[in-house]
Amino acid sequence: MTVEETIREQRRAKLAEIAGLGYALYPHRYDYSHELAALAAAYGGRTAEELEAERTPVRVCGRLVALRAHGKAGFAHLAQQGARLQIYVRQDAVPARDFALWKLLDLGDFIGVAGYLFRTRTGELTVHAETLEFLAKDLRPLPEKWHGLQDVERRYRQRYLDLLVNPGAREVFLRRARLIEALRAAFLARGYIEVETPMMQTLAGGAAARPFTTHHHALDLPLYLRIAPELFLKRLVVGGLERVFEINRNFRNEGISTQHNPEFTMLEFYEAYSDYRVLMDWSERLLAEAAEQVTGARAVAYGGETIDFGRCRRLGLRAAVREFWPGEAGPAPSEEELRDPRAEARLAARYNRVAREAPESRYPPVEIPPVAEPGVILTALFEAIAEPELRQPTIIHDFPLAVSPLAKAKPDEPDWVERFEIYAAGMEIANGYSELNDPEEQRRRFALQLERREGGDAEAHAMDEDYVRALEYGMPPTAGEGIGIDRLAMLLTDSASIRDVILFPLLRPREADVGAGNSEPDDRSAPAASR
RNA sequence: GAGGCGGUAGCUCAAUCGGUAGAGCAUUGCCCUUUUAAGGCAAGGGUUCUGGGUUCGAGUCCCAGCCGCCUCACCA
Length: 531
Hints:
Blueprint: H1 3-20, H2 36-43, H3 48-54, E1 57-69, E2 73-80, E3 83-90, H4 96-104, E4 110-119, E5 125-136, H5 152-157, H6 159-165, H7 167-189, E6 193-194, E7 200-201, E8 213-216, E9 221-225, H8 230-238, E10 243-251, E11 263-272, H9 276-295, E12 299-302, E13 305-308, E14 313-316, H10 317-324, H11 335-339, H12 344-357, H13 376-385, E15 394-400, E16 409-410, E17 413-424, E18 427-434, H14 439-454, H15 465-472, E19 478-484, H16 485-493, H17 525-529
Parallel strand pairs: 3-5, 6-10, 14-15
Antiparallel strand pairs: 1-2, 1-4, 2-3, 4-5, 7-9, 8-9, 10-11, 11-19, 12-13, 15-17, 16-17, 17-18, 18-19
Helix pairs in contact: 6-7, 7-9, 7-16, 10-13, 14-15
The chain binds one RNA strand through helix 1, strand 1, strand 2, strand 3 and helix 5.
């Protein structure tokens, strides 16, 4: 028998003994007078003398997270909602039955304690127990008490343990919750309404990505998990919901990395009668305020850097290529060169010669297709050269039309669109544009995508006839944007991996864990769905 | 998908050049009525990720596999 099995047997035996004392093993409730945090807030300032004079009666409950028995007495700490409180149990102050229970308690068990407040010799606010209730048993040993749970894999697979023993993990997810709360409040204050659009779609549109496929039995209908809510949200703008936002999951059937999880949370929003300039201004304020509300400051520490959301630089895409052009690849291209679509392949070739020689792949080579629409190669150059260098919050604006099938063209430059992306710490965290609302033009753009799709590009957009029809009913000038919540959460929690800000990131299931947690097989999901 | 690194007791970690797998916490027993990493005495606990191979001898070296992490590719 392993140590763990031994402990489980021992604790089951203790559970039987607890039953023998007459306690319910899984009672239904405990009526407490204070949550632990509230109790500390209310009485944390009282002196020992005041507490002694008041003898304030309290009823508290929580999980035992520290246990120091001293024979005929003992101390323990209860934990509840992240707060801790010490209790003091002595044989001559509690009923004999409760003291027998005390002797049978293990770390991890849940109990309720009624007693009065006092301060110990060392000054700690403590409940002097007068009665104990048994609430629930922990049959398995908790991870070690001061190193916590270090194994990264187990932290992800058994997040409950991570949350239980690593205070930092709890803080990350509290911050994530505060971030979403702050963003939601900001949109509601701006007159937006929150909506939910289909996660299962018959056609996965709104982004360039490979979708997951699924199937509806009753309708015998193949379905895709959405890669973006964009086309549905804009249908709502057509329908007169002129300021809408959605915070929800997108699913993209692509690689996993420190910045990519197959399901991720996106805040996407659209407002009528605005353009991308309005959204650039608004996004800047939104990010600064969110950073401040979540972390207390606009400048946040991230991986040894300080990312200051209080200042957001703006840079054209072409200007960014010029600014970060590697010196080894010769002089940076001129503005005119960058405006010339025919020069793109030549510039990329010049860059690639350096990229291939650069140490440690600092500069990844870019692909140069034999025929490319204007701006495609330039965008690839931008991503290779500039993106990793954009450490401070930066708005990159104006993108090639060829990589933006849903964005409105710039009036003075038909091959370019009114689009921007926001970068911080080398990551793309937002993408917005003036929405294309000309149905004929949209149909042409879809047709171009269709050609690419037929040419083997699995990520090219499909034709969405209903979306074009919606546009034909008329969509006001509109601007829209998506903000990657997970990546923003990474920045605001100083997390190096997206998995650290997603409670249950996707991992390959292990045989021992099949049927548990997020690796649950399909056939077991049916009863849950019918609840 | 490719490359690099890792997997030792329930947890956190050791183990020299290939030579008897250890420690702390946790667990069990005894003592202990103001401790807080409580303390003292004693005890139990190992498929060294899995399967092969080399060797007198493998946690250590070699091969294959599994899982994870990092980098790259794809992407947001």
